[in-house]
UniProtKB/TrEMBL annotation:
Pfam family, one: DDE_Tnp_1
PANTHER family cross-referenced by the UniProt entry: PHP DOMAIN PROTEIN, TRANSPOSASE
Protein name: Transposase IS4-like domain-containing protein
InterPro entries the record matches: Transposase_11 (IPR002559)
Domain Transposase IS4-like: 4-131
Amino acid sequence: MVCAASTQEREGGKVLLEAAKEKCPRLETIFVDNGYNGEKFQDWVLQKTSWKVEVVKHPSSGSRYAFIEGQDITAETYQAAIAKWKSRKKGFVVLKKRWVLERTNAWVLSHRRLRVDYEYLPQTTEAWIYLVNIRLLIRRLAQHSDHEALKNAA
């Protein structure tokens, strides 16, 4: 599903999940990034669909600052917060389940028409994404049938 850039992620997610409820009855867990973080969204998903929402966080989330929680700020709590901030992972980090999305985006963006958003309507972009995925599936099926034909001929 493609939404306008002005649509907040959680609102677009609600629309998507409403549509997916009918089409994906066996779905149990949804992996989301920090844009979907929040108890309101997770409660909404659980109430409407009974699916579990798991937020996949980058280890360096919120890493610009060292946060100290609580009222009592002592030298020890300050040093502990700074040590935790310095020990965070930097750069590229493999995130659970994120590679599936990134791989799919790479397949779609390998087609010139979708590298830059030329379309006026989000529905047009969505249609092009469907066309690209149909093309990818047809190519895989053709390769699979060629492989099966060679195996049967031998």
